[in-house]
Amino acid sequence: MSVKVLFFASLRERLGRSEMLLDSNSALSVREVWEQGSGEASLPANVLVSVNHVYADAETSVKPGDEVAFFPPVTGG
Q1: What is the CATH number of the domain that holds 24?
Q2: How far apart are CA 24 and CA 11, in angstroms?
């Protein structure tokens, strides 16, 4: 089974894709999903994450069939 991984805004541009399916037969942490999905060594500290539409942190467990979304920091006025 797979984990659906979504990248938004500047993360999408930086990684060159908006989504991907990550094959996994066991639970992973959000940090591991980022590392495998992005190919980068570590999850940036200021990136927001949701798992199944609920905000999560880097150590949240992700199971096959879940959806993980990564959002860059938001600024505005």
Answers
A1: 3.10.20.30
A2: 22
User: What's at 26, amino acid-wise?
Assistant: S
SS (H, E, C) the chain: CEEEEEECHHHHHHHCCCEEEEECCCCEEHHHHHHHHHCCCCCCCCCEEEECCEEECCCCEECCCCEEEEECCCCCC
Say how many domains are in the chain. Answer: 1
Residue 76 lies in a domain: no
In angstroms, the CA 40 to CA 43 distance is 8
What are 1-42's pLDDT values in tens digits? 899 999 999 999 999 999 999 998 889 999 999 999 999 989
For residue 16, the enclosing domain spans 2-71
